Amino acid sequence: xxxxxxxxxxxxxxxxxxxxxxxxxxxxxxxxxxxxxxxxxxxxxxxxxxxxxxxxxxxxxxxxxxxxxxxxxxxxxxxxxxxxxxxxxxxxxxxxxxxxxxxxxxxxxxxxxxxxxxxxxxxxxxxxxxxxxxxxxxxxxxxxxxxxxxxxxxxxxxxxxxxxxxxxxxxxxxxxxxxxxxxxxxxxxxxxxxxxxxxxxxxxxxxxxxxxxxxxxxxxx
Length: 221
Known about the structure:
By secondary structure, this protein is of the alpha+beta class. The chain has six helices and eleven strands. The chain has a five-stranded mixed barrel with strand order 7-8-9-11-10. Strand 3 and strand 4 form a beta hairpin.
């Protein structure tokens, strides 16, 4: 209830306040200052059109804590971005800018739809849910853990994620994820096309395994 009452004020200050004050409304403001400035310099309407709390609360894959999420719709993205808020050490509520900006700009959807297997792997924030992957071949499913991915409030990505069962990241995800839960994760993804033509996203690493450096901030959480 407290998040729901305070979140509109954070967004009002971010979208309508002075440009120099905007980084103060996001977690790790100095780190994101350049990204925030570039976002609001676009030639498109960036007014907040709607804000609502999502009915499903995923689990943060790293901390195991509930991740309360909001749908933040703007005039430039009426379907909305994912919004998550954290309280800083000073008690002020701040927006997780990385999650908001990525999902507002549909970065994972564009990466997946491009279909370029030679593209460098990239880190993305996404909802993660275990899947039986029934559209995939049985031989493939025997060696892989399969996941549904979600990068927007409106629904699943439409392209499955997978990770080899015997890899460290595969063992980590198998241990950390339950079939009955939805998770919020940060994943290192690579686009692939299987021999039968099915497009998938291979999970090379995820935040929490320690295999790669995701450059995610943690100092204020």
